[in-house]
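Entry 14. Structure prediction run on the chain below.
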Amino acid sequence: MSVLNAILIGLATGMVFGFALEKSRVFEPGVIVGQMQLRNFLMLKIFLAAVITGLIFILLGGVAGALTYGYFDAPITAFFAEKGDKVGFDQLLGLPFWMAAIASALLLAALLWSLESWQSWHAETGADGDGLMQPRSNHTAPTNAHLTRT
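Output returned:
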């Protein structure tokens, strides 16, 4: 792959990722502050959804690669001669690749579902869509009424 192709692929990927982040409103200051205070998990949900989507595409790419390799074994093996052993996450778990990918996607999807069940993204974007959530307690903010003159 040439440097220009790598730059163009990186640019296209960045544009798609940036568009998705802009549409999800995770750049709003209220969302970022809420994530740091562990009150607003919209950013975590968006990133988990991206990881799950990536795992699905990796699984589909693995299936497409296996089919291609099955049909073009001899030329591919000659072109990509490897030296040494490579260890993947699936091999560490002792599972086939497809099973490790599906298990990881299901585990992350369960985490995402539990976070969404606990607090909906509608509540996390705030009434104005700026990420500023209402306080969870029913207490009112302290006033400075004792400082005013009568």
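The chain has a mean pLDDT of 79.
Filed with the rest of this week's runs.
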